TrEMBL record:
Transmembrane segments: none
Organism: Mytilus edulis (Blue mussel)
Protein name per the record: Transposon Ty3-G Gag-Pol polyprotein,Transposon Ty3-I Gag-Pol polyprotein
Reverse transcriptase domain segment(s): 189-376
SUPFAM superfamilies: DNA/RNA polymerases
Superkingdom classification of source: Eukaryota
Length: 399
């Protein structure tokens, strides 16, 4: 800043001169000025604007929202500059085609970013409508654990009655497995899934190998806790998971021809634990004891709790336009236009509950989908032949 301005009562300090030695010998430069006030005047407000710089100076407007008297002195920091190319600036009435191009790219980028799977047989207009719908609802998807939702609709309670605490020693691990465990713990700490603990309860941890996508892929592991001793003294919850035959009867009677399958991103981790009983989820590692802040995989009542939560969230839609089986949601409709409406209804409910989906495991507007070991289509419901082959080639003991 190159001059002194004083403000007594008005919220508008007016225009002041911004200057930067780096631009002193560069006339007619175009820059973006972004507010960047010194600490002693940080209550002032400025806009992010495009300005022309002459002799290293440009006019910059400042507002004072405090209602207090503020004096600005020479050489105070008020804004920082980013030089831009004038050729990248277009008049609003000349850039319709550019705007449309940006809009199309935005939709394509969201689809690519999330790894969304949609029906390849959709025509261009249908694909555009579906992509726009998914883009508008980008915040219902979690690209990774850092975008994971956390609902306030249910707090999972670990009810052990009068049972005394159970304690366990950590299982032995190789140095490589200890390093892998540390990685999982760091990720969960960073994303508010777990916290350090001094709980009298503790269970050991295990690492489960994930199936490789190909032989050259890096081996990945799933972090889990062996809650068998805790589960033995946990009172069982009373909430039923839907009968599969009821699920398929509902789909068959709906005369649906188009389906979407939605999968929650780490559904258990989106359900907070009851503050009074979360210490019972504690697990022991070579680094010490931690406890979950959110519902953990392996707790005896976790699947039913998640079923109860999602059923509650989609209560008005369940058995009508959608079906809930733990964290798998099936949406079924009689035509494409109706399906878009049904998708939006489900998205709205999930967003209200702050639940997020795993985009890579969702399938949209399909004529045929795999659901609960079966294949659903307009031609009816049949057993997934891949599951049939597994049974067919299973080796049985001969007695």
């Amino acid at each position: 800043m190159s001059n002194q301005v004083r403000n007594e009562h008005s919220t508008d300090l007016g225009y002041t001169w911004w200057s930067d030695p780096a631009f002193r010998h560069r006339n007619n430069s175009t820059v973006i000025l972004e507010p960047n006030f010194s600490n002693d005047i940080k209550n002032l407000v400025g806009s992010k604007v495009v300005v022309n710089v002459q002799n290293g100076k440009a006019l910059y407007r400042i507002l004072n929202p405090t209602g207090l008297s503020i004096k600005l002195y020479r050489n105070k920091k008020i804004a920082k500059a980013f030089e831009i190319d004038k050729n990248g600036i277009f008049a609003s009435n000349d850039n319709d085609s550019i705007y449309k191009s940006i809009k199309v790219n935005k939709y394509q980028n969201v689809e690519k970013e999330l790894g969304i799977k949609m029906n390849e047989n959709l025509n261009a207009n249908q694909r555009k409508q579906l992509t726009e719908l998914l883009t508008r609802n980008r915040n219902v998807f979690a690209k990774d654990i850092s975008e994971l939702g956390k609902t306030s609709y249910h707090y999972h309670r670990i009810d052990t009655g009068n049972a005394p605490p159970v304690q366990s020693m950590p299982y032995r691990q190789t140095p490589q497995m200890r390093e892998e465990t540390e990685k999982h713990i760091d990720i969960m700490l960073k994303n508010d899934i777990i916290e350090e603990s001094n709980s009298p309860w503790s269970s050991p941890t295990v690492l489960v190998r994930k199936k490789k996508s190909n032989i050259d892929a890096k081996q990945e592991y799933r972090f889990a806790v062996d809650y068998r001793r805790l589960n033995k003294c946990t009172l069982r919850a009373k909430f039923s998971i839907p009968r599969i035959d009821d699920v398929f009867d509902t789909v068959a009677n709906s005369k649906a021809v188009i389906y979407s399958v939605l999968d929650l991103m780490s559904g258990f981790f989106q359900t907070p634990l009851d503050p009074e009983t979360k210490h019972k989820s504690a697990f022991v590692t070579h680094q010490g004891i931690y406890q979950f802040k959110r519902m953990s995989f392996g707790l005896t009542n976790a699947p039913m709790a998640l079923q109860m939560l999602v059923t509650k969230v989609l209560k008005e839609l369940n058995w009508k336009v959608a079906l809930v089986y733990i964290d798998d949601i099936l949406i079924f409709s009689k035509n494409f236009e109706e399906h878009l409406k049904h998708l939006q209804l489900v998205f709205d409910k999930l967003k209200q509950a702050n639940l997020t989906l795993n985009p890579t495991k969702c399938h949209f507007a399909k004529e045929e989908v795999h659901y609960l070991g079966h294949i659903l289509s307009k031609n009816g419901i049949k057993v997934n032949p891949e599951k049939h082959l597994l049974c067919k080639h299973t080796q049985y003991l001969k007695i």
